[in-house]
């Protein structure tokens, strides 16, 4: 208990310095953790008093010595072990705390399934113990039978030797020997039938065990492991983590142990048959049993060679990437005694299909991966056997001929991991292979957007057991909504996902519809072409490209405002106008641009300067990530004094003030730092006091410069930057923006010669 509490304290204190187990350079941190843990144990030992304390002091000192001797050369293993323990405890706590919630109901269902699996393992244990007892009994009876058989041979030899005796002696001894021989032969006949029955009964019990083993293995491999792989695939789209493999590994190890015990029993039964052949069907039965048990263990070994950490599904050439392959039964079958090597190769979709059909692919590959060989390592603390590829890099890729309108970012590859090893002293040799999730290879960052679309569609809609890498060409709109919402929440790292109103807006955009009824879209389907091959009507980008642009902008610059609910986002221009016209002047909202990828605009209601008494909705030219890299959204909203209330009626400072950049410090050594601010010419508040109102250089939606009053040499521009629809024309003002930024980059003295203080 002491060592457990101390280790928890130490690992938690080290949590701030997150240790990357895959990075050998982190060993220094792990060593520091080990030393800290040993020191705490020694300190605890020193403070123990009394008789009980004396014993505990000895134990704690022993623990400290044991930790040092075990982990001093491999401190990362200690971190791996403690993290494993903490993860298991956290999972158990979560399961217990969720028992009353809907999720808890699901956990109860899982617990019930786990209980059933464990009950079957107990039944298999009892069956295996029963067949072990029967086998020993059979062996004992057979040994006694052989002794009696040898006795019958001795009697027969004695009878044969009687021929050399005088007739009188032969007549005296022969009846006794004949009677004895008849008795032994009768017993042998009965016992031979009994042995045959024992053998057949044992074979039938083994058949029952193997049937139950195969059924249990099917549940674990075809249900639980496949479900884990599906969760792993959805995690690639931002779904919840697939969870650890500890429970699955424990089940697979129990399977391996039980299968191996039954296999050894069947081999011993075969040895007994060969030792004492008795005519009958047992030979064929044992051959069938041996074939069946070999098939079962082969299926177990090949199915539990899995990819624990997938390579990136959008894979850029000449870029380092990692992957981890694990053999769930490696420790139990002692594969680590002769550590196997794993090789990684990139292959095409067609090569993957041929591989699964067992067609000869002539060791073809579709590219060259550097550092693609790795030896499997056994981690004693966790009992895992895995190969960690830490420095792979795709040097080159060989593309196949594309079909129709397919682009390079729609072409799918996969990483093939393969190895060979033996178990049971070379009794069985296995060649194992496993394929990664589909990867799309790119050579430039500009291809990332479309490659991600291919991966998203594949991860979301792939069917289990499919032919590589077939996916439906069209899916129901609600299915796509689920995938988009999962991806959005993960990318933005927010619990605020896409609302039903947001999804209706997306449906309107996807299907060029004006309906606001969600039910109208539930039965509609969206094709891959509509998703990311055909441009939206009147635009030069696809539905996915627009959506991905929104995600990227929100993730990088707008996340806190999205989480606060300050961004409505998925609202079109007409909807914004309808919403704002019923609100007081100065009310504004934030919506994603319809016309620009990765843009967000401010819409607000105000007076029409050309028609006194009439109000209208204005739309600012969309901001992009480039704009926010210069000045944040909150600061831009702060700059615009005519924006008063965030829709529907929240004062803007109440929402955004916590994100405002603090004012610049005062002049240092007579120099004043220039300041970038944003203005809208038609809505700039005039102030008669020039000292309180710095002059601005405006240029529409782009940031502008506020100079100190002594240097106000640029008067406000009088020309309107708003078009007839209330939008800013950014193209006409970009040269001014560039000029301002150039001014800011120049040394102060070159800009304001003669103005130094």
Automatic annotation (TrEMBL):
Transmembrane segments: none annotated. Its main location: cytoplasm. GO terms for molecular function: DNA binding; DNA-binding transcription factor activity. GO terms for cellular component: cytosol; nucleus. It is found in: Cytoplasm; Nucleus. Coiled coil: none annotated. One of its GO terms (biological process) is cell surface receptor signaling pathway. Residues 562-663 form the SH2 domain. It comes from the Eukaryota. Keywords: Activator, Cytoplasm, DNA-binding, Nucleus, Phosphoprotein, SH2 domain, Transcription, Transcription regulation. It holds the Pfam family STAT_linker. PANTHER family: SIGNAL TRANSDUCER AND ACTIVATOR OF TRANSCRIPTION. Belongs to the transcription factor STAT family. This is Signal transducer and activator of transcription. It comes from Oncorhynchus mykiss.
């Amino acid at each position: 208990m002491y060592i457990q509490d101390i280790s928890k304290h130490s690992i938690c204190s080290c949590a701030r310095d997150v240790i990357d187990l895959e990075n050998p350079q982190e060993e220094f941190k792990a060593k520091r953790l080990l030393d800290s843990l040993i020191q705490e144990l020694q300190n605890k030992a020193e403070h123990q008093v009394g008789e009980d304390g004396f014993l505990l002091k000895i134990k704690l000192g022993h623990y400290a010595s044991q930790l040092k001797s075990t982990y001093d050369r491999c401190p990362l293993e200690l971190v791996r072990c403690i993290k494993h323990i903490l993860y298991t405890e956290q999972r158990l706590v979560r399961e217990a705390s969720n028992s009353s919630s809907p999720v808890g109901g699901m956990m109860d269902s899982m617990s019930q399934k786990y209980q059933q699996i464990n009950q079957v393992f107990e039944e298999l244990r009892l069956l295996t113990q029963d067949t072990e007892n029967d086998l020993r009994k059979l062996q004992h009876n057979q040994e006694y039978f052989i002794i009696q058989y040898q006795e019958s041979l001795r009697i027969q030899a004695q009878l044969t030797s009687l021929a050399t005796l005088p007739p009188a002696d032969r007549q005296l001894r022969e009846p006794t020997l004949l009677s004895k021989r008849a008795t032994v032969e009768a017993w042998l006949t009965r016992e031979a039938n009994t042995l045959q029955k024992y053998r057949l009964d044992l074979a039938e019990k083994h058949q029952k065990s193997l049937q139950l083993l195969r059924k249990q293995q099917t549940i674990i491999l075809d249900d639980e492991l496949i479900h884990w792989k599906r969760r792993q695939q959805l995690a690639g789209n931002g779904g919840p983590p697939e969870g650890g493999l500890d429970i699955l590994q424990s089940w697979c190890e129990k399977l391996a142990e039980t299968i191996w015990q039954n296999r050894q029993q069947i081999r011993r039964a075969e040895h007994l048959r060969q030792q004492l052949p008795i005519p009958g069907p047992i030979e064929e039965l044992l051959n069938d049993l041996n074939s069946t048990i070999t098939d079962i263990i082969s299926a177990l070994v090949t199915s539990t060679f899995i990819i624990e950490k997938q390579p990136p599904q959008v894979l850029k050439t000449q870029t380092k990437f990692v992957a981890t392959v694990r053999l769930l039964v490696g420790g139990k079958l002692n594969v680590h005694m002769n550590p196997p090597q794993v090789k990684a190769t990139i292959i095409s979709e067609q090569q993957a299909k041929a591989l699964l059909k067992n067609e000869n692919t002539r060791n073809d590959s579709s590219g060259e991966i550097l550092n693609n060989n790795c030896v499997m390592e056994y981690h004693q603390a966790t009992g895992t056997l895995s190969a960690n590829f830490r420095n792979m890099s795709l040097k080159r890729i060989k593309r196949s001929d594309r079909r129709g309108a397919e682009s390079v970012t729609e072409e799918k590859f996969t990483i093939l991991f393969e190895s060979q090893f033996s178990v049971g002293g070379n009794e069985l040799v296995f060649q194992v292979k496993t394929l990664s999730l589909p990867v799309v290879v790119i050579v430039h960052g500009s291809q990332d957007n479309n490659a991600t679309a291919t991966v998203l569609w594949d991860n979301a809609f792939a069917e289990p057991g499919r032919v590589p890498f077939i996916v439906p060409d069209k899916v129901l709109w609600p299915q796509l909504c689920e995938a988009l919402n999962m991806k959005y929440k993960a990318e933005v790292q927010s619990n605020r996902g896409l609302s039903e109103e947001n999804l209706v807006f997306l449906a309107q955009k996807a299907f060029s519809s004006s309906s606001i009824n969600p039910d109208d879209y539930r039965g509609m389907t969206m094709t891959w072409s509509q998703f990311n091959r055909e441009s939206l009507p009147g635009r030069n980008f696809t539905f996915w490209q627009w959506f991905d642009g929104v995600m990227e902008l929100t993730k990088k610059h707008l996340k806190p405002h999205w989480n606060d609910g300050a961004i409505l986002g998925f609202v079109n221009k007409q909807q914004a106008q309808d919403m704002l016209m019923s609100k007081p002047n100065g009310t504004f909202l934030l919506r994603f641009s319809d016309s620009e990828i990765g843009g967000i605009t401010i819409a607000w209601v105000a007076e029409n300067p050309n028609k006194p008494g009439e109000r209208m909705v204005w739309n600012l030219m969309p901001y992009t990530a480039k704009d926010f890299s210069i000045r944040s959204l909150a600061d831009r909203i702060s700059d615009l004094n005519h924006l008063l209330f965030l829709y529907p009626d929240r004062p803007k400072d109440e929402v955004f003030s916590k994100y405002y950049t603090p004012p610049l410090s005062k002049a240092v050594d007579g120099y004043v730092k220039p300041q970038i601010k944003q203005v809208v010419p038609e809505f700039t508040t005039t102030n008669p006091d020039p000292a309180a109102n710095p002059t601005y250089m405006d240029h529409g939606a782009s940031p502008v410069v506020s100079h100190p009053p002594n240097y106000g040499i640029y008067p406000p521009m009088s020309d309107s930057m708003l078009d007839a629809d209330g939008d800013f024309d950014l193209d006409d003002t970009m040269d001014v923006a560039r000029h301002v930024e150039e001014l800011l980059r120049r040394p102060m003295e070159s800009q304001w010669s003669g103005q130094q203080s």
